[in-house]
Design brief:
Structural class: alpha/beta
Distance between the termini: 19 Å
Oligomer: single chain
Radius of gyration: 17 Å
Number of strands: 9
Number of helices: 8
Bound molecules: fructose -6-phosphate
Helix content: 25-40%
Length: about 260
């Protein structure tokens, strides 16, 4: 995995947006898989800036949301559909999906996979990582071959999501998520992590054994996966010096590549 160490959250967000915007420029009809969560907010903010100030064009871009809670409507302020509108889609020239999950979940999940396949697959998948190593809502023990499916969330994830909901609100216990198999089928994957709370998950995912106990470790099997982590999230990586060497050498061969 290519590991890019960034000084802080702003630099991480700029680097991720730089990679995404380059991908959009070289393939204006790109298919993007998009994650929500606090980690991604800075990336979407930077993409919106690039759209406004540099005319980055999303008119032909097709997007697939990585996951969605069950039991709340697309209009709910904490649905992932709403998150994407609020932080990204409403501010760029993109065609947002409708976000309604059909009540026949099995059929809905199969149709979602068929849509991805029909579009030619996802070119670039953006991911965050949970403290327990989840990607999408693929919690520990998820199958590496899984496709879009219904997932019961762990208590740790429900607790982490508490920050997004008002004290008296019911927090969703289930979600629909692309599976690890769906994620591995993307042509390129970008996984982002910020803050010390993610340090163990990041080290386990990148340098630990590949295990269903750490779903993100499956990315070690992906031929084109890049992790962008800030100082704190990367603090428990053993090979930090090597990753810095690789970044330095890459800069030598392709100056200006990294921000
Ligand atoms: C969100 C998602 C999750 C988050 C992860 C990190 O669409 O799929 O896997 O990426 O839980 O969330 P934050 O960024 O809020 O720490």
């Amino acid at each position: 995995m290519l590991v890019l160490l960034k000084q802080n959250y702003e630099a991480l967000s700029r680097e991720a947006a730089h990679i995404i915007s380059n991908a959009v420029r070289s393939n204006p009809a790109i298919k993007l898989g998009l994650a929500t969560g606090s980690t991604t907010i800075g990336v979407y903010r930077e993409l919106v800036r690039l759209h406004r100030e540099e005319g980055l064009d999303f008119s032909r871009v097709v997007t697939f949301n990585l996951d969605e809670y069950l039991g709340i409507s697309p209009e709910h302020p904490h649905s992932f559909h709403h998150f994407m509108l609020e932080h990204f889609f409403a501010h760029v020239n993109i065609d947002p999906s409708d976000g309604t999950i059909a009540s026949d979940y099995e059929q809905y999940c199969a149709a979602y996979e068929a849509d991805i396949e029909g579009a030619g697959g996802i070119d670039l998948q953006i991911l965050g990582i949970g403290r327990n190593g989840h990607i999408g809502f693929n919690e520990p023990s998820s199958s590496f071959a899984s496709k879009t499916h219904l997932k019961v969330l762990t208590k740790a994830t429900v607790d982490d999501n508490r920050k997004f909901f008002a004290a008296c609100e019911i927090i969703p216990r289930c979600a629909i998520t692309m599976g690890i198999g769906s994620i591995l089928a993307s042509k390129r994957v970008l996984i982002l992590a910020t803050g010390g709370a993610k340090a163990a998950a990041v080290a386990n995912a990148i340098e630990g054994p590949v295990t269903a106990y750490v779903p993100a470790s499956a990315l070690q099997f992906h031929a084109n996966a890049t992790a962008i982590v800030d100082e704190e999230a990367g603090s428990r990586l053993k090979l930090k010096d090597y990753y810095r060497d690789v970044m330095e050498m890459t800069e030598l061969f392709t100056p200006g590549r990294s921000s």
